Amino acid sequence: MPIGFDFAGVLFPLFFVATVGFLIYAAIRGYKAAQRRQAAIVALVAANGWHHVAEDPSRAELFTSAPFGLGDSRRARDIIWGTVDDRPFETFAYSYETHTTDSKGHRSTTTHHFQVTWVPLAGPLTTMRFTSDNVFLRAATKLGARDLNVESHEFNQRWKVWCEDERAGHGVLTPRMIERFLQPDLGGRGVVIEGPCLMTYTQGQSDLTDLTQTVGLLHEINDLIPPFLFEPRNDAPAGGSTTQ
Amino acid sequence: MEWFLIALLVIVVIAGLWAVGAYNGLVRLRNLVQEAWHQIDTELQRRHDLIPNLVETVKGYAKHERETLEAVTAARTAAVAPGSSPAEQAQQENILTQALGKLFALAEAYPDLKANTNFLQLQTELTNTEDRVAAGRRFYNANVRDLNTRVETFPTSIIANMFKFVKAEYFETEDPAARQAPNVQF
Asked: Which of A107, B31, B100, B149 has its CA 20 to 30 A from that of B76?
């Protein structure tokens, strides 16, 4: 019997070593990226006089609108709060997990990451969710989730708006608000009004370099909400009798 | 033959259910349009009710501006007159808005008037009311758009014609939020 080169005996250990090596490299790289991110956060917080806490479980239940309330193992980390132009804000990294099982019974877990930033409003408003149009949302609309349509065709194409109270929603969607939402800096974002909070989120882990711009964007949207939506209805006319 | 009758029955039942759904949808939209119009009407009434006070306040400081004050009063009288359709009401409100614009412009020439507390309060309330009217208009027109689309498109148009559903009129007024110049950057 001729003596042959034992491929299985050489390649398998080689493959195993390469895989383990790659996993260790990826773990070290991930760890170093996390360290760099932490250092950047500490520097950012110190430079602006903001505050930071590593993790707060209560923040993971702060909102009910997506991406909150989905999956499990929800976490809110690196909570930063302070002021920009003397107006308060808060931001944090939010994540949750989803699980799938394939036909062979293997379970895999996916972690979904978001950067959430929110500012307080002058008072509670109707819940509104602005999401970029996508296939999933078009299907949900066909199943009965009513999308708020406005007079701008471009806005209707780019944004899907769900609103708890459509009348109040049309109050929020003034021509200037619509114009603001058509600006490119809102691309790739979700925007939510929930209670007395105005929130925006992006997918993925953020290095927070655009945090000031994000907060500025929220303040601009806040300023475009008509004041009467925050005021209680006052039916008493000014200056006494008004009937002719 | 039996299968044919069963299939025919299924088709008739499905068509019937669809017709009921289409009819109810039209009724719902028509009621939404009517309700939305009532809300606008309420806000317009409030706007009209604020104007006599405004005219009296301005008269105290600018009695010589008779033409402008009379234009506001005349526009208000026309807007208050009952029986106008939404399109006619919109026209009347636009005339009133223009007259009020001239009134506020002339107030700029009277510093004492501008500083008057009552005048400032009325101005704020009018602005708030106009914002409410604008919001109501957007809601109303959105529902009119939905209703008109349903009335005109096939096959819902069959049900609409059978039960005499008609298109509603839009309410097109100047939106105060659109009057402000956009921020243009070069």
From this structure: B31
